[in-house]
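The instructor's notes for this session suggest beginning with a concrete chain rather than abstract definitions. Hand out the sequence below and ask the class to guess, before any prediction is shown, which regions might be ordered.
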Amino acid sequence: MAQVTSAAEAANYLHVRNDWLARRKEEILEPDLPIIDPHHHLWDRDGWRYMLYDLLADTNSGHNIVATVFVQARAMLRADGPPELKPVGETEWINGVAAMTASGAYGKIRVCAGIVSHVNLLLGDAARPVLEAEIGAAGGRFRGIRHSSAWDSDPGVAGMYATRPKGLLLDSTFRTGFAHLAPLDLSFDAWLFHPQIGELADLARAFPDTRIVLDHCGGPVGIGRFASRREEIFPI
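After discussion, reveal the predicted structure:
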């Protein structure tokens, strides 16, 4: 009988091991300190489900988490309509989740009080109406977009990102789309690998008025061609 591989396993996502997490409990040092979780995901995928009740189980750990920010996860995209508007489905869904906790029915926490979704900036000037559609779908919660530029020449590093275009952040059409973020008071979340940080710095110099968030500590890589090079890579 053929072994079935879930979508989560195919994408190399690790399953949460609650038994392993339960092995260590740490004292909460400042239980009254208000905390905003600035980056989390929600999704319902084959082999991997993390929805509102899962998040609430984690945020009810004893810390004073008062709000969260959802970041793009390619979840609940529209199945129909123009391809460029498919990410608006994610924003519509997350805004509904945010409305659930805004009711107060789940305590004081306001989940997804900020929403960072996706717009394809390679649309150039055509990205503007999509950005406006995202804003309209978010009920005042839309804060910005994430457009991943993660790429590497080594397929062992790039994995599921191997088909991404090289040098995306330097692309003139991408930058035409990027130019519409600041006028709409939107931020940009960058997801890349550490050798690409210089490209992001170049983008930031070209658009000093745009707020940029560097996700995942700049994507330090320790596999593929970067294996066994920790001491060389981490000081970068």
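Then share the key points. Residues 1-114+126-140 form one domain. The chain has a mean pLDDT of 92.
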